[in-house]
């Protein structure tokens, strides 16, 4: 008996299936409507097709053996090919090789970079022929990104943005910088007035490996429905009441819904002007974000990246940055520039995160 794919899937007319690990994105097909990366069994043509974000595309490549006794629309993996039953024969979908899938279970399939693909244990293969319009829309930083806010609250007291309304199906990214004691850490939490769910992607502080004073962290929340809200950051432990908290809130569109974060990184340095290589991109069409704190508070820092910076005299200097353009391909080294004011020794703590675009 042929080995079934990890979860055997039956595709039936009028029932939509989102591919394993596929983002539920808003790019869609019409006649009938469908989300990017979804399969449909088309009873009219007896073929399985997928939505590439612009049009429905059949996945047939060649006709195989009889599938008598198997329900039309049944999909499985056998003999190194992903295939489906059209009611009479197995229809093979194996197309062009898309590179190594070493370490991935044979029969695994997903939707990536505008194409459905499966792994045969050695390589990824496109399922069906290439289709026009298969490139996903580019990840973008929305122009309505919220203004920086800051304060010196007691522990448990919020620092809060003005009200704003993000688009539906967008990602909120919060970059937090904070002053700390010279030899201790703080913890922070992020929330919003629309009861969104917030996740910390990466953080650094004094106790991090090689860490210096000053807190930096990046948080995110997925917005399914765009409603008016405010975003708040509060210190949950550490010295409160005098130490500064400052943060930026960014709005990102056309991101990888359900799996927005790729690589993360962080570091510390005493050099005034640094350009560390933060990470190697994990996906095409991603964008790098970073946040840094100069605990020596030399003045307002600058960057060759798109930056928003602030200086709080005798307290701390902070900066949030993102890359001016998307990283086109996976495996690309991504660096960020943090340039402290003047030429004196700085005290940098920084973190970075890759925000992934639609697959």
Question: What does the secondary structure layout of this molecule look like, with pairings?
Answer:
Elements: E1 9-10, E2 17-18, E3 28-29, E4 34-35, E5 38-42, E6 47-51, E7 56-58, E8 62-66, E9 74-78, E10 81-85, E11 89-92, E12 94-100, E13 109-112, E14 115-119, E15 123-127, E16 140-141, E17 146-151, E18 158-160, E19 170-178, E20 187-192, E21 199-204, E22 215-223, E23 231-237, E24 245-253, E25 261-269, E26 273-274, E27 277-280, E28 287-294, E29 306-312, E30 316-322, E31 333-335, E32 338-339, E33 348-355
Explain this structure.
This protein is an all-beta fold. The chain has strands spanning 9-10, 17-18, 28-29, 34-35, 38-42, 47-51, 56-58, 62-66, 74-78, 81-85, 89-92, 94-100, 109-112, 115-119, 123-127, 140-141, 146-151, 158-160, 170-178, 187-192, 199-204, 215-223, 231-237, 245-253, 261-269, 273-274, 277-280, 287-294, 306-312, 316-322, 333-335, 338-339, 348-355. It folds into two domains: 9-127, no CATH class; 140-355, no CATH class. It is built from no helices and 33 strands. The strands form nine sheets. Strands 16, 17, 19, 21, 22 and 24 form a six-stranded antiparallel beta sheet that branches. The protein has a five-stranded antiparallel beta sheet with strand order 1-9-10-11-8, with no helix packed on it. A five-stranded antiparallel beta sheet has the order 25-33-28-30-29, with no helix packed on it.
